[in-house]
């Protein structure tokens, strides 16, 4: 039997799935939009992966990471459930063993991970403001009547990027409109937005962090060549982007699955099972915790969110 390992990364914007072999080679992958429904997105990812995976391989372990990792992990019976920092670090180290700095900009948040001798020594995350994320670029592309795929090419054609105040989404949008009104070209505005993304990241997420080479940039925004150029210009060092950089969290948790001693075949037919979540407010103490309950075929399989033993248990 050829063993394979499944990693699922469930984000607020996109859901990623990867199957690897014992040498960390990617056998099948899927990248789909979450669309506000992580369980439905994971089912679609599993269906796509099962169709792509060579039938000579058997998935013996599965793991989850990302913002909905616990919800999906419980629903799928995943043996490994890890946070994004661990998953991204492990995934990147599997491809770039000597990496020292990981820059990651996703759809709704961003993070920086500093690695020393193959171990995470420091990290920071920004989940409070969307001004330096992929969703920000996407919304500005629509405002400028541009396809996001054309964003980088247009930005790279600019010789004089406009100065955009991107500390806050509201300020950035107001500044963008102002720059257009006073006559800045669309190319200069787009280039300014790409630079603003980089400066926002370095002045917030990367503030006080010692960024050392090799530097790896990942997340959806890493596909934007203009943003890569601005990072290299500001950091004065090369920035590596792997073709599978958008899948790194899923890859990392798949690698972590290999360390599990008990190996049981993963059933892709689980994608056909109906899952349901319900939020209830516990009234057993003054905390009034919001408890999330997960049901499978009308049976409660897990619940969490309670801050004391009086909370709802499965």
Can you tell me about this structure?
This protein is of the alpha/beta class. The chain is 34% helix and 26% strand. Strands 3-2-1-4-5 form a five-stranded mixed beta sheet, sandwiched between helices. Strand 2 and strand 3 form a beta hairpin.
Quick summary:
This protein has 314 residues and is α/β, with parallel strands linked by helices. The protein has helices at residues 38-52, 69-76, 84-95, 134-143, 148-156, 169-181, 186-204, 225-235, 248-257; strands at 2-10, 14-20, 26-33, 57-66, 80-81, 101-105, 110-116, 119-126, 215-218, 239-240, 275-281, 290-296, 299-304.
Topology of helices and strands:
Layout: E1 2-10, E2 14-20, E3 26-33, H1 38-52, E4 57-66, H2 69-76, E5 80-81, H3 84-95, E6 101-105, E7 110-116, E8 119-126, H4 134-143, H5 148-156, H6 169-181, H7 186-204, E9 215-218, H8 225-235, E10 239-240, H9 248-257, E11 275-281, E12 290-296, E13 299-304
Parallel strand pairs: 1-4, 4-5, 6-9, 9-10
Antiparallel strand pairs: 1-2, 2-3, 6-7, 7-8, 11-12, 12-13
The rounded distance between the terminal residues' Cα atoms is 36 Å
The biggest sheet, with number of strands, parallel, antiparallel or mixed sense and barrel status, is: 5 strands, mixed
Q: Could you give the order of strands across the largest sheet?
A: 3-2-1-4-5
Question: Residue-averaged pLDDT, rounded?
Answer: 86
List low-confidence stretches. none
The outline comes out as globular
C-alpha Rg, in Å?
Answer: 21 Å
The string of secondary-structure elements, in order, is EEEHEHEHEEEHHHHEHEHEEE
What is the β-strand count?
13
Percent range for helical residues?
Answer: 25-40%
β-strand percent reads 25-35%
The total count of helices amounts to 9
Q: Based on helices, strands and strand pairing, what is the structural class? A: alpha/beta
């Amino acid at each position: 039997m050829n063993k394979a390992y499944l990693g699922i990364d469930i984000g607020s914007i996109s859901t990623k799935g990867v199957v690897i072999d014992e040498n960390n080679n990617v056998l099948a992958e899927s990248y789909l939009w979450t669309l506000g429904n992580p369980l439905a997105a994971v089912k679609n990812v599993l269906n796509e992966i099962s169709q792509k995976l060579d039938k000579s391989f058997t998935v013996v372990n599965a793991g989850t990471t990302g913002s909905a990792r616990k919800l999906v992990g419980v629903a799928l019976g995943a043996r490994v459930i890890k946070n994004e920092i661990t998953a991204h670090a492990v995934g990147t180290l599997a491809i770039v063993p000597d990496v020292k700095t990981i820059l990651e900009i996703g759809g709704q948040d961003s993070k920086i991970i500093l690695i020393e001798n193959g171990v995470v020594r420091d990290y920071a995350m920004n989940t409070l403001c969307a001004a330096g994320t992929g969703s920000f670029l996407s919304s500005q592309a629509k405002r400028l009547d541009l396809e996001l795929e054309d964003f980088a090419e247009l930005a790279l054609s600019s010789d004089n990027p406009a100065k955009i105040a991107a500390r806050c989404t509201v300020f950035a949008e107001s500044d963008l409109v102002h720059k257009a009104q006073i006559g800045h070209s669309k190319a200069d505005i787009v280039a300014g937005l790409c630079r603003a993304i980089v400066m926002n990241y370095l002045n917030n997420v990367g503030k006080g962090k010692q960024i050392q080479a090799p530097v790896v940039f990942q997340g959806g925004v890493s596909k934007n060549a203009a943003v890569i150029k601005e990072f290299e210009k500001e950091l004065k060092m090369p920035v590596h982007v792997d073709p599978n950089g958008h899948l790194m969290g899923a890859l990392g948790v798949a690698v972590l699955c290999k360390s599990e001693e008990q190996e049981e075949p993963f059933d892709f037919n689980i994608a056909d099972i109906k899952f349901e979540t319900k939020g209830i407010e516990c009234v057993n103490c003054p905390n009034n915790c919001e408890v999330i309950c997960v049901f499978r075929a009308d049976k409660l399989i897990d619940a969490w969110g309670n801050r004391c033993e009086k909370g709802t248990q499965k």
